[in-house]
Amino acid sequence: MARGRFISLEGGEGVGKSTQLTALAEALQGRGLQLLVTREPGGSPGAEAIRKLLLEGEDTRWNPRAEALLFAAARADHVEKTILPALERGEWVLSDRFLDSSLAYQGEAGGLGIEAVRALHRFGSSDFLPDRTLVLVLDEAEGAVRARARDGNLGDRIGSRPPSYHAAVDAGFRAIATNEPDRVKLIDASGPPATVTARLLYALGDLLP
Ligand SMILES: Nc1ncnc2c1ncn2[C@@H]1O[C@H](COP(=O)(O)OP(=O)(O)O)[C@@H](O)[C@H]1O
Ligand SMILES: Cc1cn([C@H]2C[C@H](O)[C@@H](COP(=O)(O)OP(=O)(O)O)O2)c(=O)[nH]c1=O
């Protein structure tokens, strides 16, 4: 049986990622694909336990290096226990965030540098990468409107960091897409949800059976 494909969906806060995750999953399943939908931090029992450590408590609970290591540890467990077994079974996997969130948040915005975070991924997960990473991008003003419209979630340790942090996250995602244009595609998240979903599917066109 052919190995499945691994797709990650990324973006800053409030770009409409949850909305698109659901719509993209339905569209892929509608094409007859067996799809496992998962998320980070989390996606396996061990990684879900680490998720609570990462998202709850004071912003100062972890220093930047400890925070990056926890994300990398959660990801190592998620890859081994959930993602690789599904791909081996021939399923497709769609993950709500993956490595590129660590590169943008901890590496770029957190000041560790993208290369340092990539080194943790080489150690933790043998540098296992998605077949395609779709990054939703929105201009800042529209992103702020959507973030305000959304219930909850901005209160977590990372979501509640200042606008300058989130602007650096956005710059990080754009830099990654420039550096890895074949794997990482920037997707315009403006306009009606169905239009954004169509852009996502178009960016997967060469992978779809
Ligand atoms: N394409 C869109 N156009 C306008 N509003 C949107 C769009 N997609 C999502 N929203 C709204 O923006 C807010 C954030 O969307 P959500 O999918 O929860 O984003 P995220 O998961 O990125 O935080 C929600 O109120 C949602 O209804
Ligand atoms: C996977 C990952 C997430 N994060 C952050 C992004 C989010 O602020 C938070 C995950 O929270 P979550 O509640 O899943 O929110 P979202 O809807 O924004 O995906 O953790 C990192 O900083 N590094 C990472 O590697």
UniProtKB/TrEMBL annotation:
Pfam families xref list: Thymidylate_kin
Enzyme class: transferase
The keyword Kinase appears for this protein: yes
GO molecular function: ATP binding; dTMP kinase activity
UniProt key word Ion transport: no
Domain AAA+ ATPase: 3-206
EC assignment: 2.7.4.9
Binding site for ATP: 11-18
SUPFAM superfamilies: P-loop containing nucleoside triphosphate hydrolases
GO annotations of cellular component type: cytosol
GO biological process: dTDP biosynthetic process; dTTP biosynthetic process; dUDP biosynthetic process
Keywords annotated in UniProt: ATP-binding, Kinase, Nucleotide biosynthesis, Nucleotide-binding, Transferase
Reported function: Phosphorylation of dTMP to form dTDP in both de novo and salvage pathways of dTTP synthesis.
Protein name per the record: Thymidylate kinase
Annotated source species: Sphingomonas cremea
